[in-house]
Amino acid sequence: MNKKMRLLAVPTLALGVVAMAGAPAMAADASYSSTLGQLNGTTGTGTVTVDVQGTTATVNLQVNGLAETFMDGPYPHVQHIHGLALGTCPTSADDANGDGIVSVTEGAGKYGGIQSTLTTSGATGPEEGLNLALGGQGGSYTIQRSFEINQGTQDALEAGTAVVVVHGLDPATAGVSEEVFNSPSDLDPKLPLGATSPALCGNLAAQMGEMPSGGADTGVAQDTGSNVGMLALGGGLVLAVAAGGTYVVRRRVADQA
């Protein structure tokens, strides 16, 4: 695996990873779904269904209209099933420092820590939370796969607190200055805050008359609120690697005839 595709030194507390031990108990068969709401100026959309049989979850995630490219390639959006908190999505009111972006840690009080990572293939544990090689590629993509769910995911689904979050903002629509977008991420200071912050979010509500014991909230928040080269993210804005090894956003200079 290309080492550049895996983000390094991600603080455990910032990710909100909950360590799970032992094999999961048998879960009740159930189906869950959500229409994902927009956060941090995102204009994209998403839907997700999770069908559980025993300890196997079959996920169908469809995303459209997010930031398209990153490092001259498809944008590797990461997405997770969070849970065991309030089971809802943050809004602009959760922007504790008032910088205009609700960060991962600012939203974690609502949606909780990572229980499962919705990767395109391979492992699905919390430790894959920022594995770009296994993220959804581009601005529109589908993830369809089945995997064994851990105890934390099972508990969150059954309690009604499971929330799907898709990460990665477009600087053209985030509604903040380049300085704010490029400020250090709460997950890894070498990355821009905007590139790791939540873009889409929705509570996984039980279907077909089954309600989790904790009840279900739609959780849909509509919120309008070095020299490696250029990382195009659309809308005339680009990310570039600065000499100090951090990523910054600059406006694209129009080609001259």
Would you write up a description of this structure?
There is one protein chain. Helix content is about 10%, strand content about 30%. It has about 260 residues and is mainly β. β4 and β5 form a beta hairpin. It is globular and about 50 Å long. The N and C termini lie far apart (about 40 Å).
Helix content: 10-25%
The total beta strand count reads 16
Largest sheet report: 9 strands, antiparallel
Distance between the termini: 40 Å
Indicate the CATH architecture. Sandwich
Structural class: mainly beta
Query: What is the assigned CATH homologous superfamily?
Result: Superoxide dismutase, copper/zinc binding domain
CATH class descriptor? Mainly Beta
* Number of structural domains: 1
Over all CA atoms, what is the radius of gyration? Answer: 18 Å
Approximate strand percentage = 25-35%
Helix count from the secondary structure assignment: 5
The H/E string reads HEEEEEEEHEEEHEHHEEEEE
Ranges where pLDDT stays below 50 over 5 or more residues in a row are 2-26, 210-257
Mean pLDDT: 79
What is the 3D shape?
globular
Question: What does the secondary structure layout of this molecule look like, with pairings?
Answer:
Elements lengths: L11 H4 L14 E9 L6 E9 L2 E9 L4 E2 L2 E2 L1 E2 L1 E5 L20 H8 L1 E5 L18 E2 L3 E8 L2 H9 L3 E5 L10 H4 L11 H4 L1 E6 L1 E2 L23 E3 L4 E5 L5 E5 L6
Antiparallel strand pairs: 1-2, 1-12, 1-13, 2-3, 3-10, 4-5, 6-9, 7-8, 7-11, 11-12, 14-15, 15-16
